[in-house]
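Example 9 (inverse folding). The structure is encoded as follows.
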């Protein structure tokens, strides 16, 4: 499991969590970007071995009381490198 923490201004977080944004669901877009990044890590990071992944899960949960969004990512490799 890997994680990250994004801290935002309270106004920005309120806008994201208030409902549908005119450009789409912000969390859904972030989730898709996280999945794509996990599947292409070998292409984004030099000297990284390609891994076939059978599962990638990206969880985002807004914490308005702290003005942040923790992101947790889990993945299951289908194959391993030596």
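The amino acid assigned to each position is listed next.
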């Amino acid at each position: 499991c890997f994680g990250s923490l994004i801290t935002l201004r309270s106004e920005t977080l309120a806008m994201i969590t208030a409902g549908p944004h005119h450009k789409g669901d912000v969390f859904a877009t972030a989730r898709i970007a996280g999945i794509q990044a996990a599947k292409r890590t070998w292409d984004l990071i030099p000297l990284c071995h390609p891994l076939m992944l059978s599962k990638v899960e990206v969880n985002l949960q807004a914490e308005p009381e702290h003005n942040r969004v923790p992101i947790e990512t889990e993945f299951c490799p289908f194959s391993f490198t030596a």
